[in-house]
Amino acid sequence: MDANDQRTWTPMMVMPVEEPTAHPNASGPTVDIYKISGDVESIRAELEHMSSNMSTGPRYVTDDPALNREPPSIHDQERVWVSYFHSGYFYEAVIDNHNGPNGIEVTYRDGDHQNDVERDEIFALEDWDADAKVWRRSEHGDWDMAMVQTATPMTGDAGGMQYELMMGNGDIVTEWNDWEQVRPEFNFELGDHVWAERDGNLRWFKGVVTNMFQQGDDAMGYRQYDVTYTNGETDVGVRAPYMFLIHPKRIISVEGAGMDEEGICQIVESSCNP
After folding, report:
1. Could you tell me the CA-to-CA distances from 130 to 149, 217, 218 in Å, in that order?
2. Sheet holding 133-137, edge to edge
3. What sign for the dihedral angle of Cα 252, 256, 257, 260?
4. How far is CA 80 from CA 116, 124, 180, 182, in A?
5. How many H helices and E strands in the chain?
6. Taking phi first (over 0 means left), then psi (-120 to 50 degrees means alpha), and beta for anything else, what does residue 122 get?
7. Looking at residue 261, what DSSP letter applies?
8. Phi, psi at residue 84, to the nearest 5°?
9. SS3 label, residue 3
10. What is the per-residue DSSP string for 14-32?
11. In what order do the strands lie in the sheet with 104-108?
């Protein structure tokens, strides 16, 4: 203690720290930037050679023509459901211009306008014929299987289709063609890229069908699916009313070059590995 009753502290001898001899983020062998530059040039030259020998450029195709399914087409002034400003929440809208300079232009039911909608952010309605299987929203908010009995085009400003549906218990009900009330029993396939409504919370996320299994083999049988999302999480046993097709599984086709997607990847890997 000193005279003023203040506590003092004398530091112990501290050994000096040696100056670093390498950058703190450096690890492993040094990188030859000239080697990397040469690899990039090799890849570029190889791809340019491939391109010059192709009858058409690389494009995505469905490897099995039987699985070549597409979502319903869209047209101007069509009533659709759109991911509201890319949020994953889909709301009713009308297409103003499906070929706008910045994307598809739509006007929502509440008057909001969006001019940069992507094609895969639109749920378009489709018409069903008699005997088609669909899902109808129940009074409790769940979805029940039904069978289309009749389909009647409506005239006037409302337009659209009106359906008579037979429910599983034999009841006959009438519904308009409305995404919030009637949805298709669509047969998805493994590898399909889809939107899926997680836990029925109204927000939709992109994922891939990674498993499927049949529930029932009678007229009211249906499929359930496992959907794996882009963050790696998986929902099990998802039914069709909670899903919407973006596109089927696809591969890269480079017709005329004698090269498939695996071949392109091998070029890149071999050029990047010394």
Report:
1. 5, 20, 17
2. 172-176, 161-167, 143-153, 133-137, 182-184
3. positive
4. 15, 5, 11, 13
5. 2, 18
6. beta
7. H
8. -65, 110
9. coil
10. -PPPPPPSS-TT--SS---
11. 113-117, 104-108, 90-97, 79-83, 122-124
pLDDT (tens digit, 0 to 9) for every residue of the chain, 274 residues total? 555 555 545 545 545 545 544 444 444 445 444 444 556 667 667 666 666 665 555 554 555 655 678 889 999 999 999 999 999 999 999 999 999 999 999 999 999 999 999 999 999 988 999 999 999 999 888 999 999 999 998 876 656 889 999 999 999 999 998 999 999 999 999 999 999 998 777 899 999 999 999 998 888 899 999 999 999 999 999 999 999 999 888 665 555 544 555 555 555 555 445 4
Residue 183 bridge partners (DSSP): 135
**Which residues are bridge partners to 62 per DSSP?**
none
The DSSP secondary-structure symbol of 7 reads: -
Residue where the block lists tokens 């498939």 = 260
The neighbour count for residue 35, using CB atoms within 10 Å, is: 10
Is the Cα dihedral 228, 82, 60, 48 positive or negative? negative
C-alpha separations of 129 from 125, 126, 261 in Å: 13, 10, 39
> What 3-state DSSP class applies to 34?
helix
Q: Which amino acid is at 136?
A: R
